[in-house]
Design goal:
Helix content: under 10%
Strand content: 35-45%
Distance between the termini: 51 Å
């Protein structure tokens, strides 16, 4: 059974299966709840995953027990709904389930048919082949999410018709862009009356104002309470905030902003050819459009080989300014935002896909005054439900979702990056798999992998790995770095480093306060419990099940195993074609070159400098307080004696 942070008890079919899962769950996560519900963990806290939980994007579908639909969801009954009101859902599923009236409506999925497969029971034969045991086609209900924020985080919605009572959630705002009216916040299921965002008057309207003039009005306490002030020279196209006192604006408001219009690779309806977010593997022909730092760039000299980013290469690229674009290169978008008026700083910005980006003024100044809200790729629909400084310059074929980190996610190429909580950066990765569910205060950088890097809890770095396998389930305050492997580095619990490994086997299940370093192996290094190091090994076999405070190091072998050792000394510099196993010692097992086995020893002394002759030689089943040294050609079975020399 694959282990993770998701409680799968609810998926078990029988009480026996549930009890097996409960046992594994208690062993792995003794602090977690154990019942028939499904749970996830974020930042150390366990919470039930329900239909309204995080991680279900716009267009996501779940089973539901009745036709009583929760807020933010629609029943999958094939109904035709408004394209204008449910604009985000329409952008996600289009007319895949029906064109509606062909102009103003589209059809929802119809998943109440009795022939729609609800669930499939699958078992496996001895060779691992899947066997379909049964298919459940009993009529059930399904609901579809029409907004990305499925965890009830409030947002600012928009459309070209008045919102209906069933649209949105309590606490949401809604901007009607055709009449320039704002509704909200929605309370007790009602949107209330619209407030005009145009003109003056005592009851509402917008006052256009420059930032410098706004500062003066705040200082003089001359704001008109209840009025909306649009700061026309900030936020690209303006910031809109309501005055809640004569000298104070509301903390949260609206940002009007131009964003690159097209993140999909290909031609748009206006004759522009887009090549997506730039990365060093791309080439470009004349007039191609690319995206970098949230800005559109036009190719003016053909790019035939990998070059620097467009902002560093004015020979090949020309900036298309947001103030002077001519062919629909940018799209006007509306976001919620928090604004620090005194410091003239957008602290936080959010969209209707659950993304919340930004940082406070002081943090921004420590990052060279960069406001990542301006750089982020807001119009990339593959970025969902993230909270961090910003997400930008990623060229991906999957999704970036559910990240909660104090840093940026940037310059990645490949698959999915999701479910991370860290105080560092996730950057410069090229992946076809996932980088997911990491909780760290360090950096996850420069990885190139077709596997997964996930479920790590660390306060340092996971970096410079090139692997086709997994780096998973690590809990460490050290580094996991510079690994090149086709196997796994997994289930480690350490405060030291695991780095510079090149292996096609596994490095896994280690609990150590030391290092596992510079290994090149086709076998596994796993299940070690040590406060020393496992280092400089070149082996085709396994080093495993060791519990030591000393070192296991500098082995060069075609061994099958170095394992089951519990020692406070060292196991070092061995070159052997058999086993070194079952040792419990407070001394050293070192510098052995043997064809036979050294195993099952319990000693407080040393076993060292052994080199077998042409005949195989075993040193085994010893319980000694002394040393065994020299060259041995016969078996040594003495107990409690100091042996030196050979026979």
């Amino acid at each position: 059974m694959k282990r993770g942070f998701l409680n799968t008890i609810a998926l078990a079919k029988t009480e026996n299966e549930k009890e097996i899962i409960r046992s594994l769950w208690r062993e792995k996560f003794p602090e977690a709840p154990v019942d028939d519900k499904t749970y996830g963990r974020k930042n150390g806290d366990w919470s039930e995953i329900t239909a309204g939980g995080k991680g279900i994007p716009c267009g996501g579908i779940v089973s539901w027990p009745s036709t009583a639909v929760p807020g933010g969801w629609l029943l999958c009954d094939g109904s035709a709904v408004s394209r204008a009101l449910y604009a985000d859902l329409f952008a996600t599923i289009g007319t895949n389930w029906g064109e509606g009236d062909g102009a103003t409506t589209f059809n929802l999925p119809n998943l109440t048919k009795s022939d729609y497969p609800i669930s499939v029971d699958i078992s496996y034969d001895e060779e691992g082949n899947a066997i379909v045991d049964s298919v459940d086609t009993e009529k059930k209900y399904h609901i579809i999410n029409y907004r990305a924020t499925t965890d009830q985080i409030n947002t600012i919605l928009h459309g070209t018709v008045a919102p209906t009572a069933g649209f949105g959630l309590d606490g949401d705002f809604y901007i009607r862009t055709d009449t320039l009216e704002i509704y909200g916040p929605k309370m007790a299921g009602s949107w209330g009356e619209a407030t005009s965002m145009v003109g003056g008057g005592s009851g509402g309207g917008i006052i256009n104002i420059l930032y410098a003039d706004l500062v003066v009005e705040i200082e003089n306490s001359t704001l008109v309470t209840g009025k909306f002030y649009k700061i026309i020279d900030r936020g690209n196209l303006g910031l809109l905030f309501q005055a809640i006192d004569v000298n104070k604006l509301a903390i949260d408001g609206v940002r009007f902003m131009l964003c690159p219009a097209y993140y999909t690779i290909g031609a748009d309806a206006y004759g522009n050819n887009w090549i997506g977010v730039w990365n060093l593997t791309k080439t470009a022909t004349l007039n191609d459009l690319t995206i970098w730092n949230g800005i559109v760039w036009k190719c003016i000299v053909e790019v035939t080989e990998p070059l620097d980013s467009p902002d560093q290469n004015v020979v090949n690229w020309e900036l298309i300014s947001k103030s002077a674009f001519a062919n629909h290169e940018y799209l006007e978008m509306i976001f919620g935002c928090s604004y620090d008026v005194a410091n003239d700083w957008i602290c936080k910005q959010w969209d209707n896909r659950g993304n919340v980006f930004g940082c406070d003024y002081n943090t921004g100044q420590n990052n060279d005054g960069i406001n990542y809200c301006d750089l982020s790729d807001w119009n990339d629909i593959s970025i969902i439900d993230n909270q961090c400084f910003g997400i930008f310059n990623n060229s991906i074929s999957g999704e970036i979702r559910d990240n909660r980190n104090i840093g940026t996610i940037d310059n990645n190429r490949g698959g999915s990056i999701n479910g991370n909580s860290n105080n560092g950066y996730i950057s410069n990765n090229s992946v076809l798999g996932e980088i997911a569910n990491n909780y760290n205060k360090g950096v996850i950088v420069s990885n190139s992998n077709e596997g997964s890097i996930l479920f790590n809890l660390n306060t340092d770095q996971i970096s410079s790995n090139s692997n086709i396998g997994d780096i998973v389930h690590n809990f460490n305050t050290g580094q996991i770095s510079s690994n090149s492997n086709i196997g796994n580095i997994s289930d480690n619990f350490n405060t030291g480093n695991i780095f510079d490994n090149s292996n096609t086997g596994n490095i896994s299940d280690n609990s150590n306060k030391g290092d596992i370093i510079n290994n090149s192996n086709k076998g596994g290094i796993y299940c070690n419990f040590n406060t020393g190091t496992i280092s400089f090994n070149l082996n085709l076999g396994d080093i495993y099940f060791n519990s030591n405070i000393g070192d296991i190091s500098a082995n060069s072998s075609v061994v099958r195993e170095i394992g089951y050792n519990s020692n406070k000394g060292e196991i070092i510099s061995n070159s052997n074609t058999s086993n070194i196993t079952y040792n419990s010692n407070a001394g050293v097992i070192s510098n052995n070159s043997n064809i036979g086995s050294i195993y099952s020893n319990s000693n407080a002394g040393r076993i060292e400098y052994n080199s077998s002759g042409e005949a195989e030689c075993n040193i085994f089943l010893n319980k000694n307080n002394g040393s065994i040294v020299g060259t041995w050609t016969n078996s040594v079975t003495d107990i409690g004696e100091d042996k030196s020399g050979g026979s």
